[in-house]
Amino acid sequence: MDFLGESQEVPEVNWISPCPSSTYANTIAIGASDGSVWVYTIDASDAGNPLQIVQSYFLHTGACTAGAWTPDGLLLATVSEDSSLYVWDVWGEASAKNLVGDNGQTVIAMTGVDQRFEVEGGLYSIAVDPKGAFVAVGGAAGAIRVVSLPRLAAQSQARSRGAGGKADPTTGGQIIAALQIGADSVETLNVTIASVSPPTTLLAAGSVDGSIVVYDATRRFAVRRHIAGAHEEHSVVKVEFVRNTWLLTSCGMDGVVRRWDIRGAGPTNPNAAATAAEAGLQKEWRGHRGDGEGGGVLGFVQGETGERIITAGDDGVALVYEA
Which has fewest Cβ within 10 Å: 83, 144, 223, 230? Predict the structure, then answer.
């Protein structure tokens, strides 16, 4: 490996997310502790300027805690400790359709000023629907808000409100669900479309209290599975579905990686907490120190079919598991 370049615009980077669009290859977004958001394109052929700033945004007033691209890579959604959600028009596609707000940068700008959206204590997690229909954000006190996203492919008029104050649905920005999963912060969110007929959209949320809740978005976000103690009393750090399946992979500060099959029957009452067996626990992988000893799993990536999992541990160890 050869060193390519470096850039330092902020005191601390909280997250990095690559743009999924092949049109904008080698582009990443980062969120910083000072609330700023930056988009870079990496150009290895330009030795003098390999890290090129595409956009920078400064509307968050607290640390920017999480961010996610829409599946087409045209919009970038970010959240902050100040309980704000902004969806940025990175490439100008929304502006061309007159869908950008008065600030000239965002297609959605939501803050705690709107009490329907407010999450006291801040927002810390985010996930975008694979179809680009909505963005889910999670934060303190177990709160989740689900907000519709604009349809850039649709022909739409300028952002406006008609009779009765109803927004044009193509512009997005409507709160379509307000959920609560307990008293502790929602640390991680993920959305999948399970391949069944009809397709089922599932939203998984992992909490500091060690629980995982899975919602069925096709049934008005009804609780499909509540796994109390999914990682015992330790915080759930990340949840991620194996693409287009019912299989959910999770990791936590207990140092364990687990895989769940959400198709299981579960408890008779879907709102009741399920045991591991009822929740559909398929397999677990150990090796990190965990158990509150500074060896929790801080993150993982998995193959397209979930066949391999690579972890990063708080104990300074990365492990590769074969599923």
Answer: 223
